[in-house]
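Posting for a labmate who doesn't have an account.
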Amino acid sequence: MVLSPEEVSRFLEAAPGLKYKAALSVAYGAGLRASEVVALKPEDIDSKRMVIRIEQGKGRKDRYVMLSPQLLELLRNWWKAARPRGWLFPGQNRINPLSTRQFNRACHTAAQTAEIDKPVTPHTLRHSFATHLLEQNIDIRVIQVLLGHAKLETTALYTQVATRAIRDVMSPLDRLILQSKKTEPPA
């Protein structure tokens, strides 16, 4: 399941509070898994290099993902409002991180508020991130690194839903016809 960019925008605006708007924006804006979002610490945000460090992601691997200027601004607003210590997104007990269950609930609440009829989970945001990058013609190997996939085949699954990218590809047949029309003598 993939959300359109317009649906993602509505969804993020409908997040239940600044903490969840920031957390859900990280999930979409950097393509993170729910477990990676809730495990973030303030020191994982590197504003000088404009990257987010993902420590011990799936497969126990560390990686870096991009940090957009808009996401950095949102995270700074969240940090100024809450001054989180330890975890970037603390749970109800500030000693612990936000649970993936709480994160999932916030995701469902935002989808309902935004009146999105599709089932939306944190993984939907990750899937939408990858699909939207493919639709912008970002190399699939770059997307593989951003998602933290060990195998290109895993990332290639996202190509099945990148409909705009598929639609924009010109068939070799169309190219042949265009070329033959260019070389035909004027009638």
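Reply:
Got it, the structure tokens are right above this. The radius of gyration is 20 Å.
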